[in-house]
């Protein structure tokens, strides 16, 4: 029978309150070091991103202009290019042109007013009623909720955290 693996026993486990306080202080120091490194990384990433966005901007502009030029030419010559609209794809040898039909979409403004108009016109088929389980109500009556097949009320559990003391500066200078 295989033995279950257990966590390494060489963890720093405090033996008294003073050692626990010292470990919490060490955790705080490590968290601040980590935060500084993450901030440095993000500063460097932001500078790199800004540098490359500046380099890419003129390329993106040139791509957009050239794409629009090809689109104008292709639209003007579409019937010839597609063999009388028999195809939506044209292979130029150096690349492919495609025309794709986009699916229809519905955009609504002032949704409440639209719902009222639909109801007034009797177009109920354009309205949807959504029914869903109210979990908050079940948590208020867990004994009753548990009697329903498929419903389980879990324990709220317990979480352990270590929060080292952090002093905050107000940003105001003392004079």
Keywords:
2 strands; 3% strand; two-stranded antiparallel ribbon; 175 residues; single chain; mainly alpha; flat
Textual characterization of the structure:
The chain has 175 residues and is mainly α. It has one domain (17-97, 105-146). It contains 5 helices and 2 strands. Strands 1-2 form a two-stranded antiparallel sheet. The protein is flat. The model has no long low-confidence stretch (mean pLDDT 89).
Largest sheet: 2 strands, antiparallel
Question: What share of residues are in beta strands?
Answer: under 5%
Annotation field: number of helices:
5
Helical amount among residues, as a percent range? 40-55%
Largest beta sheet: what is the strand line-up?
Answer: 1-2
Radius of gyration (CA) equals 32 Å
Question: What integer is the average pLDDT?
Answer: 89
> What count of structural domains?
1
Our measurement of the CA-to-CA distance between the termini, rounded to an integer number of angstroms, reads: 73 Å
List unreliable stretches of 5+ residues. none
Helices and strands, with pairings:
Layout: H1 17-76, H2 78-81, E1 89-91, E2 96-98, H3 111-121, H4 135-140, H5 142-146
Antiparallel strand pairs: 1-2
Short description:
With 175 residues, this protein is mostly helical. It has five helices and two strands. It has one domain (17-97, 105-146).
């Amino acid at each position: 029978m295989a033995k279950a693996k257990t966590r390494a026993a060489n963890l720093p486990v405090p033996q008294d309150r003073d050692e626990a306080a010292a470990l919490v202080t060490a955790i705080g120091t490590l968290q601040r070091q980590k935060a500084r490194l993450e901030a440095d990384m993000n500063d460097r990433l932001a500078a790199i991103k800004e540098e490359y966005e500046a380099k890419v901007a003129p390329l993106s502009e040139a791509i957009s202009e050239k794409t629009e030029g090809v689109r104008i030419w292709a639209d003007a010559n579409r019937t010839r290019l597609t063999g009388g609209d028999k195809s939506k794809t044209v292979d130029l040898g150096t690349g492919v042109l495609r025309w794709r039909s986009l699916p229809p979409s519905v955009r609504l403004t002032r949704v409440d007013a639209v719902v009222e108009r639909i109801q007034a016109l009797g177009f109920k088929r354009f309205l949807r009623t959504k029914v869903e389980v109210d979990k908050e109500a079940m948590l208020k009556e867990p004994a009753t909720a548990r009697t329903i097949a498929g419903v389980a009320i879990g324990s709220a559990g317990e979480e352990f955290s270590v929060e080292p003391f952090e002093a905050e500066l107000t940003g105001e200078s003392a004079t």
